[in-house]
Amino acid sequence: MSSIPPEAGEAKSRQADWSRMPERSNMLALRVICWIAITCGRPLTRLILHPICLYFLLFSPAQRRHIKRYLFRAIGPRAGWSDGYKLLHAFASTVLDRIYFLRGRMDLFDIRIYGNLPVESEAHAGRGAFLLGAHIGSFEAMGACKRQSKNPEDLRLAMLMYQDNAQQITKVLDTISLPGLRPHIIALGRPHSMLALRDWLDGGGLAGLLADRTLPGPDEGGAQRGNSIELPFLGQPAFINDGPFRLAALLRRKVFFMAGLYAGGARYDVRFEPLADFSERVSDPAERERRIRAALETYVARLEALCRAYPYNWFNFHDFWLED
């Protein structure tokens, strides 16, 4: 385990290439699919996912290569074309289901929630907390927690995200979603981002962040986003950024792991687990660094376990291990 060395700066910059990749979406096609989903219903619309997945499997060689490497590590050498197709179909299914989640159609799904009570306790107490996830499963499935909560008005969620590389699909989903079902967005990399986040947490809100992709270097406000730490992930060293944990330590909040895992058909497993408690002030810098490192290692270990348990839910279609 180590911080990324200076000579690896070029490789580190390649790790962020996902943020500059052109969005593989067509606005007209997205609108047509949304119209079909709303008009014809989920069972019929799911039929068109098969040719879409086949197209991307055949004509996206870079993404296919990254998927193959991941599946080899998650489920072993037996991984083949059929497994790549299953992963793409799971991804397409979660994207389609976002339409129904954002229109309040929770009745279409079998959603099972685990470990949510500690998170709700923080929200109900007005303390706020960080929810750290990854590009695994569906974030929108976690909206079921609010629906099943005894005090849903207390569960206010803001999503911290970079908005620049998925603008088309975001615009379409904003158009079709019902009021109040899209989470509040706090845009990362802006001069006012930290103040907006602090105010949101002070008001008892929850802040969600997908922590498996982080841009390197300083943001537009001049603040460093954290260190890229080399940790074993699925048997291969990978660089994971500790910026989200440093942010939680700076703002003195508890951190929970979150994942809305697609289990096939209409079923989702929504899971929460405690990761770290930074609510107490730590004056010793060495102890603070130790806690941040421990939290990051716990996060990576939990993510690895879920990738093995739900192998077709990993939606990081870029050069995650910097092998190209």
Describe the structure.
The structure is a single chain. The strands form two sheets. This protein has a seven-stranded mixed beta sheet with strand order 2-10-9-3-6-4-5. The N terminus is likely disordered. It is globular, with a radius of gyration of 19 Å. By secondary structure, it is of the alpha/beta class. It has twelve helices and ten strands.
Number of H- or I-type helical stretches:
12
Computed over alpha carbons, the radius of gyration is 19 Å
> What composes the largest sheet?
7 strands, mixed
Helix content: 40-55%
Q: What topology, given as strand order, has the largest sheet?
A: 2-10-9-3-6-4-5
Q: Calculate the mean pLDDT score and round it.
A: 85
Q: What percent of residues are in strands?
A: 15-25%
Structural class: alpha/beta
Low-confidence region ranges = 1-18, 220-224
Terminal-residue CA separation: 22 Å
The run of helices and strands is EHHHHHHEHEHEHEHEEEHEEH
Please report the total strand number as a whole number. Answer: 10
What form results from the Cα inertia axes?
Answer: globular
Summary tags:
single chain; 324 residues; alpha/beta; seven-stranded mixed beta sheet; three-stranded antiparallel beta sheet; 12 helices; 18% strand; disordered N terminus
Short description:
With 324 residues, this protein is an alpha/beta fold. The protein is built from twelve helices and ten strands.
